[in-house]
Amino acid sequence: MFEDANNLENLNNGEVDDYIDEPKTEEDTSTDEPEIPQTDLSDKGGQNKCPKCGSTDISLNSNTGKLRCNFCRHEFEPEKIIQTDLRNLEGESISLGAQDIIADTEDVLTFKCSSCGAEVIVDTNEATQARCHWCRNTLSINQQIPNGSIPDMVLPFKLKKNDAKAEIEKFVEKRQFFAHPKFKKEFTTQNVMGVYLPYMIVDINAHSKLSGQGERQVRRYTRGTGDNKKTYYDADLYKVEREFDIIIDDLTVESSADKLKDNKSSEKTNNIINSIMPFDTENSAKWDANYLKGYTSEKRDTNVEQLKNIVNNQAKDIARFQANKTLAQYDRGVRWLNEQLNIKGQDWKAAYLPVWLYSYLQVNNGKKLLHYVAVNARTKETMGSIPINMPKLAGISAIVEVLGIIVAIFAYFFIIDTDYVWFSALAGFIFFAYYYYKYRNTDARHYHESETKSTMENVQKSDDFVRTLTGLTNSRMNGANNTRVSSANSNAILDKATDYIPNDFHKFMPK
Q1: 3-state SS of 114-152?
Q2: pLDDT tens per residue across span 167-211
């Protein structure tokens, strides 16, 4: 099936050859321009008027999810985004709202009111809508900026502010013991804000090819006695190949450069905001400025080209994890030596998605760190970072470590399970790591590889036995990468510490 999968048995330490082909059509030339769908609304104001009385004084009723006229109280359904069959998606399609931002239209704009003709100035750094000061018509800059400053779609707020505040209070309450005393004194949910954050939503039609090796355990045994006892494994080695079509529906990435800093930022806990995805983007409505009333919003400041590498990496992760559904027999893992993802078609849209956001600025020895607690305004998913009382955590961890060493010494002389001996000797370090990550959540992220909607079709499989490997000392295949995530964050400290934790230790850890 694959020419590049020959002689895999001699490539035990081979590196993965992975790449992504960009979208291709039958006449693929360097001069082809992406298709630009006309996704802007037909109404000149950039927002719906009341279909009953024509008023522009409209806002979102979060109880029903409908738009409500504040003049005649009539409610009506928002206009939904129509989803096409992604199997027919070819080439690259970039919607009007996802177009590159033009620098000279980013700040102050002057345009005429579509109702009375008055000229209105809007500072787009502060707002994306305004009212005409003569006729009070609500104005939108939707059509005045056909350059990506305004999104194609918006997902309305569903969770009420009081409910979001309750979720944030519940999250913080569970982290009181090691919370910084100044934070506990100053914490209040009064400054919780509803924010529409900018995202790119990408649909992808692709074809994936993977080839490599897999191992299936056939025997586990021990040799030696006492302290010299060691566990060994025998395993069957297979040449493994998978080929399939994959449809990725609504892959969602931040389109704010500030939020894309993720854990690399030393000043903001941006990964917290990433971790509350996914959103139910299938319920998004066509862009309407009325949804922004009562909420703040942040403008997109990245273009498609800046986000392509992130999207391509995440698409490959999704394909790799879809392939895992066909690899259940390889309990020691699979080492992919070649990965290809040929993107046949992709569609980019810009969106506003709703978040309830609490922030707290911690200043320590002149260094500033902005902590976030974020709530998905659709699903209630909550994640946050809490300032830690480090002297208290370090002190108690030291006490736990001393006690752990005493227990380890006692266990060693009385020949108790060696797993628990190692765990006891590292108890203080494990205690510190556990609570540090519980409060700061520096490893929190959106699991795009499993949480993004995707479908695998037309699967072709090849599993050819190569030979039996004996006397292996690792419980998992060397170089196994079928669960690798290219764009995930890592926690080396916690990973190393938990290597020594017995499988059933979770029963004793606090919730």
Answers
A1: CCCCCEEEEECCCCCEEECCCCCCEEECCCCCCCCCCCC
A2: 999 999 999 999 999 999 999 999 899 999 999 999 999 999 999
Which residues are registered as beta bridge partners of 194?
356
pTM of the model: 0.79
- For the chain, how many helices (H) and strands (E)? 9, 18
* Beta-sheet strands, E only, within 413-509: 453-472
Contacts with 97 (C-beta within 8 Å, 6 or more apart), sequence order: 39, 40, 148, 150, 151, 152, 153, 287, 349, 350
DSSP string, 18-62: EEEEPP--TT--TT---B----S-SSTTSSPPPTTT----EEEET
Alpha carbons 388 and 181: distance in angstroms, whole number: 9
Q: Using alpha carbons, list the distances in angstroms from residue 398 to 206, 330, 437, 509.
A: 52, 42, 17, 18
CB-CB contact of 264 with 365 (8 Å) = no
CA distance 169 to 57: 34
SS3 176: coil
Segments of the chain scoring below 50 in pLDDT: 1-14, 25-31, 38-46, 105-106, 121, 133-135, 142-148, 263, 488-511
Work out the number of other CB atoms within 10 angstroms of the CB of residue 349. Answer: 25
Q: For 162, list phi and psi in degrees, rounded to 5.
A: -65, -35
474: amino acid identity, one letter? N
Distance of CA 428 to the CA centre of its chain: 32
